[in-house]
Design a protein that fits this description.
Elements: H1 3-12, H2 14-23, H3 28-87, H4 91-104, H5 109-119, H6 122-125, H7 128-137, H8 143-153, H9 160-166, H10 170-177, H11 183-192, H12 203-211, H13 223-239, H14 244-256
Helix pairs in contact: 1-2, 3-14, 4-5, 4-8, 4-11, 7-8, 9-10, 10-11, 12-14
């Protein structure tokens, strides 16, 4: 029954109206007002509650970050220096790092590192068939697709660095021009060549953020949702006196026990 029909029944039926008045039942308008006020009160309470929980978790992260800095601070600083040094290298080295990031999508960073070391310049020189075979031998989950993406990206290899540096938004350029590269992989690559203000939202980081009550893990990580979560991480990083590249290494260590590129 619709609200209008219910209202009509309550107001037009003499018998129901008589019983309602006798039992002192509130009017529909009164009920509506009560529900609206209750929702406002409990909605405000819920928002305040979650803000308090978030603040508590931020304080917790802050305290944990101090302990982590004592434990692995020098290792993190060394890794950040390595990223800066990679940024000074040429386009072919940047392309090799891009291939590593293509490989890590829906795979493991350790597996990607192993393959990168084994194949080396083969990312540029092997035929697509040979690359597929080598990726399969080295245990990659998706040898055919990753070989296809890497061979397709070769057209940018010689001037990759210049294209990225000259782009108004380097991450957007990578996502739009390199097949097999999404926001996570583009952010990963940019961090590894020295950029500091991109978040790498892999499943380890998303799991950690959800456990800490900072986000509700999305079913699909759309561009809008990616940027929204990245914005939250950026605020946390600023409160901790870090950049996103540094924060990512600490968070990844907290979740996996490793400091990797």
């Amino acid at each position: 029954m619709s609200e209008a029909s219910l209202h009509k029944l309550l107001t037009k039926s003499p018998e129901i109206a008589r019983r309602r008045n006798h039992m002192n039942i509130p009017t529909l308008d009164a009920i509506t007002k009560f529900v609206r006020n209750s929702l406002y009160f409990f909605g405000t309470f819920a928002i305040t509650y979650f803000k308090i929980i978030l603040l508590i978790n931020l304080v917790k992260i802050s305290e944990e970050s101090k302990e982590l800095k004592k434990e692995i601070g020098s290792l993190v600083e060394e890794k950040l220096r390595e990223f800066k040094e990679m940024g000074k290298k040429g386009s072919e080295e940047w392309f090799n790092e891009l291939c590593f990031c293509i490989l890590t999508a829906n795979y493991s960073a350790l597996g990607g590192l192993k393959i990168q070391r084994e194949i080396g310049d083969g990312f540029l020189t092997l035929s697509e068939g040979e690359l597929k075979r080598r990726l399969r031998e080295l245990g990659h989950r998706f040898p055919n697709k990753r070989a296809e993406y890497i061979v397709g990206a070769r057209k940018h290899a010689k001037d990759l660095k210049g294209k990225v540096l000259s782009a108004k938004d380097p991450r957007e350029w990578l996502v739009r021009n390199i097949k097999g590269i999404g926001y996570k992989e583009a952010s990963h690559f940019l961090r590894n060549v020295g950029y500091e203000d991109y978040a790498i939202l892999d499943y380890h980081i998303l799991d950690l953020l959800e456990k800490e009550g900072i986000i509700k893990r999305p079913r699909t990580l759309t561009r809008k949702k990616y940027l929204e979560i990245e914005g939250k991480l950026r605020k946390i990083a600023r409160r901790l006196g870090m950049n996103l590249a540094e924060l990512d290494l600490y968070l990844w260590y907290k979740e996996t026990g490793k400091v990797l590129k």
